[in-house]
Amino acid sequence: MTSPTPDASPDIGLMRVPSQRIGRLMDLVAELSLSVAETVRSPDLDGLDLGHFDAAVHRLTMIMREVQDVATEMRLVPVDDVFRRLRRMVRELERQTGKSIEVKVIGGDTQIDKLVADRLYDPLLHVLRNAADHGLEGPEERRAAGKPATGVIRVSAAQAGSEVRITVADDGRGLDRGRILAKARQRGLIGPGEEPADGALWKVIFEPGFSTAENVSNLSGRGVGMDVLQTTMAALRGRITVDSSAGQGTSVGLHIPVSLAFLDCVVLRQGDKLFAVPIEVVAEIARPAPGDMIRLSAAGGDELFRLRGRNIPVRRLEEFYAGGCRGAGAGAGVIVVCQSGEGLIAVPVDEVLDRQQVVMKPLLGRLAQVRASFGCALLGSGEVALVLDCERLAPGGSAR
Questions:
Q1: Could you give the CA distance from residue 349 to residue 334 in angstroms, rounded to a whole number?
Q2: 245 and 294, same structural domain?
Q3: How far is the C-alpha of 128 from the C-alpha of 123, rounded, in Å?
Q4: DSSP per-residue string spanning 328-364
Q5: Cα–Cα distance for residue pair 25/308, rounded to 1 Å
Q6: Which of 9, 76, 261, 368 has the smallest C-beta neighbourhood within 10 Å, fewest atoms?
Q7: Cβ(320)–Cβ(399) below 8 Å
Q8: How far apart are the C-alpha atoms of 187 and 268, rounded to whole Å?
Q9: Based on the domain organization, do 102 and 70 belong to the same domain?
Q10: Cβ atoms of residues 336 and 302 within 8 Å
Q11: Dist. CA 400–CA 112, nearest whole Å
């Protein structure tokens, strides 16, 4: 009698694993990554003839990077888990607003970190409510404007490089520029004679307590909601973009890192302090020539960096971080040109040290008040670098 042939088909079954256990695994992978980096960079190895050591280190580093990637993937969940909860709110929003609303979901299979998914529902719900209450017109107003009676809100997600972009876009009336500008001037957020560009003006809707609603309802008018979104996005190392056209609608984009545990960074030194900048925001690294640094006035004026005929605002780290951060003179060092929602900014530093995948840790307690920072990065050398938030470094950004 022949013995039965074992089933050679691959096991594709699923296992339930508590998220706390995956979180613990990621913490251990982070510690392992730091230990490997500390070992291979040990000063005790200096001057030793170790033969094939460099090749072994390269292989170990590649394996370590793959382990980090696999650990990160274990905590990814489809963003549709969040979108499904939003879709269930549509019927309630129709009842409260008296409007006919259709929600279209695109890219629900896009993967995001579960820690992000757990914190994303409430802010997205605020955006959806604003789109339904402020953005979409009523059926009669839509017909008069030549639109279908049913308003459409598109909720989409897509991965672009190391970040996930989630967009909530409606086909409504668009933001009321005049009313927002008047309210911003009334609250002193914008000067009486100042005429900001649309991109700068839309940012005031995220200020705490800001609302243009004349009446308070269950959906709006209390001046809360969008500032919650801003706070949540800052905690997730994300950023917000707003685009609006009168009569065409409004689009709110959320740009969020795929992983909150590991971050590809350029490590910088300014004075005796270390900083890290996420690699995806670094546009260029340049060494300034004489005359490239321009001061607009003799004392305390804005400073610009001229790069191929373009003037880029300079943001010096010593203006944000005191104590040991003052580096070399204006003509020395290098300039790291970074992207922000306000455009390019130029950050002078003494030295660019390395590009590393770093372990991210949040700033808690009193450290949460550190200005213009996402958190701290644990480097392979055992040192700690402050991760710069270029949105808050930008001239129009909040310093906190």
A1: 6
A2: no
A3: 9
A4: S-TTSSEEEEEEETTEEEEEEESEEEEEEEEEEE---
A5: 47
A6: 9
A7: yes
A8: 39
A9: no
A10: no
A11: 27
Angle 214-173-232 (CA atoms, 0-180°, nearest 5)?
70
Asked whether residue 1 is domain-assigned, the answer is no
Q: Which of 257, 287, 320 is the last residue of a domain?
A: 257
The 10 Å Cβ neighbour count of residue 374 is 26
The answer to whether residue 369 sits within a structural domain is yes
Domain co-membership, 280 together with 324:
yes
* Residue 203 pLDDT > 50: yes
Instruction: Give the span between the Cα atoms of 283 and 41, in whole angstroms.
Output: 29
- Whether residues 116 and 61 share a domain: the answer is no
Q: Does one domain contain both 345 and 230?
A: no
- Interval 176-204 mean pLDDT: 86
Q: Which domain holds residue 37?
A: 19-44+51-74
Token pair of 296, please?
A: 């607009």
**Amino acid at the residue 116:** V
What is the average pLDDT score of the chain? Answer: 82
- Per DSSP bridges, beta strands 249-257 and 163-170 are antiparallel
- Evaluate if residue 3 carries a pLDDT over 60: no
56: in domain: yes
Give the residue among 343, 335, 344, 347 at the shortest CA–CA distance from 372.
Answer: 347
**Separation between Cα atoms, residue 244 and residue 238, nearest integer Å:** 20
Task: Collapse the DSSP code of 2 into the 3-class scheme (helix H, G, I; strand E, B; otherwise coil) and give the result.
Answer: coil
Predicted confidence (pLDDT) at residue 215 exceeds the cutoff of 80: no
Structure tokens at 219: 């959906």
Give the max Cα distance, the chain. 98
Query: How far apart are the C-alpha atoms of 123 and 297, rounded to whole Å?
Result: 42
The enclosing domain of 148 has a CATH number of 3.30.565.10
Determine the Cα–Cα distance for residues 15 and 121; give it in Å rounded to an integer.
25
Which of 151-155, 272-276, 339-343 is most confident? 151-155
Residue spans of alpha helices (H) in 151-209: 177-186, 198-202
Residue whose token pair is 């609608």: 249
Under 8 Å between Cβ of 363 and 370: yes
Which residues have CB under 8 Å from 356's CB, separation 6+?
264, 265, 267, 276, 379, 380
